[in-house]
Design a protein that fits this description.
The protein contains 15 helices and 13 strands. It is of the alpha/beta class and 457 residues long. The protein starts with 5 loop residues before the first strand and ends in a 7-residue tail after the last helix.
């Protein structure tokens, strides 16, 4: 365990009313005492824990800033270590100068996520809760926020611990029976373990199945706009954004590359991608844009196919319809404020999808678009209730592995294999579930996880 004292600016860069420098480690209080002068002439080493003190940060005789200092002793802090938080005025020059003084006094710069990593290593939280800290910071909508708070409070941890407790009971029973067969009978045990494993598989499957819905609700629906040039794709993006983000002209092929924006559409989180108009072209740059549009469509959660209502369907439209077949897609016929030339029934017949009559100019059709997206992704699927949602890809990977191991137990039961075969796969499932909460985690994995955190957290 690294006991060096670390320090970092824990508030976002930029001018603000206050800025906070966090210092954590065995010598945190002694180090800050070297640069802090209390106006009541007390040393931080002598004050009670969880008290706030007014004074100034000094570099020799020069006063750098007037500050409030919060002292946390005896492991009663976020990191589980002695911690001091210096509340300065929020200018970056001031914060940088104060941080430099703290480092010169004996601290070292913290690495990204190192405070949270220490909280994990000191047993203040498990690994899934630590990951929830960054999810909470990055939350972009109500679901992501609520899900992160629940995970931070332990709803994922509790579920995983419940599953592991059942598994370890049976591992212990099998080992005990094999060591002492005279006193512990395993007659009829295969049926008992079969019932338990089937129940565990059902619970794990529910968690695995929650991932897609949870990921979409947390990260937003990856939405790709497709259509021919000048159909109104960029106008749709601008309308949803409420600003002129994409260039709109009457010249076909204006959009050559993808343009990505995060949009909160009446509570729906959309990671929107505007793409180049799809058509046959001799322009090499435009061809690259078209190929990129097709690639983005392959990975999309939702495709919005914008049809030019002023033109008949052609081979380019049919090419787009082939792309969206068997995918989650919505068809928007644009320019309905004018007389339509396109055959609506033909679109329905070729695509197998309902059609929304839409006008980017007048903003009509947005209510129906919202309703359709909600029905496809949210209705009856994702709610802010007590259900545990898996939103972390690493957690899902561990659950997949545990599911396979438990399935192997059922296979061994069906083949009437010896009980020690059950124990091998049960232990593997137990360890895979343990990776989620950090019960059995290698340093490399921990370093990889915390390296993705922001500085100062």
């Amino acid at each position: 365990m690294n006991t060096e004292t670390i320090a970092a600016i824990s508030t976002a860069p930029g001018a603000s009313g206050i800025g906070i420098i966090r210092v954590s480690g065995e010598e945190a209080i002694e180090i800050v005492d070297k640069v802090f002068k209390s106006y009541k002439d007390v040393k931080l080493a002598d004050v009670d824990t969880h008290t706030v003190h007014f004074g100034c940060i000094k570099d020799g005789d020069e006063v750098i800033d007037e500050v409030l200092v919060l002292v946390m002793k005896d492991g009663k802090s976020f990191t589980g270590e002695n911690t001091v938080e210096i509340n300065c005025h929020g200018g970056m020059l001031i914060l940088t100068k104060v941080l430099d003084l703290v480092i010169k006094a004996g601290a070292r710069p913290a690495e990204p996520g190192e405070f949270t990593k220490r909280a994990f290593l000191n047993g203040k939280m498990d690994l899934s809760q630590a990951e929830a800290v960054m999810d909470l910071i990055n939350a972009k909508n109500d679901f992501a926020h609520t899900s992160a708070v629940k995970q931070l409070k332990g709803n994922v941890s509790e579920k995983i611990k419940e599953l592991r407790a059942e598994i370890i009971y049976h591992i212990a029973f099998i080992e005990s029976a094999l060591d002492d067969p005279e006193h512990i009978s395993i007659d009829g045990y295969s049926e008992k373990i079969k019932t338990t494993v089937e129940k565990e598989l059902d619970e794990i499957k529910k968690l695995i199945d929650s991932f897609d819905n949870g990921r979409v609700a947390k990260e937003g629906i990856k939405t790709v706009i497709l259509g021919k040039p000048n159909a109104g794709k960029s106008s749709l993006l601008n309308l949803l954004l409420g600003e002129e983000r994409a260039i709109v002209t009457e010249i076909e092929g204006t959009t050559r590359d993808t343009l990505e924006e995060y949009i909160n559409f009446n509570g729906l989180s959309l990671n929107m991608v505007d793409t180049a108009g799809i058509r046959e072209s001799d322009d090499k740059v435009e061809q690259i844009g078209v190929e990129k549009a097709k690639e983005m469509a392959e990975d999309a959660d939702l495709i919005l196919y914008v049809v030019d209502g002023q033109k008949d369907l052609d081979e380019n439209d049919k090419q787009i319809i082939d792309i969206i077949k068997d995918k989650q897609a919505i068809v928007l016929v644009n320019k309905t404020d004018l007389d339509l030339s396109v055959n609506i029934e033909e679109i329905k017949s070729l695509s197998g999808l309902d059609v929304i009559l839409f006008s980017a100019k007048e903003g009509t059709g947005l209510d129906q678009l919202e309703d359709d997206i909600r029905q496809k992704f949210y209705e009856g699927k994702v709610t802010l209730n007590d259900q545990v949602y898996i939103t972390n890809a690493r957690h899902k990977e561990c659950l997949d592995s545990a599911y396979k191991s438990l399935s192997n137990v059922l296979d061994s039961v069906s083949k009437d294999m010896p009980e020690d075969f059950y124990s091998i796969d049960l232990m593997d499932a137990y360890e895979k579930l343990g990776l989620i909460i950090g019960e059995s985690v290698e340093d490399d994995l921990a370093n990889e996880i915390f390296s993705k955190f922001c500085m100062g957290k």
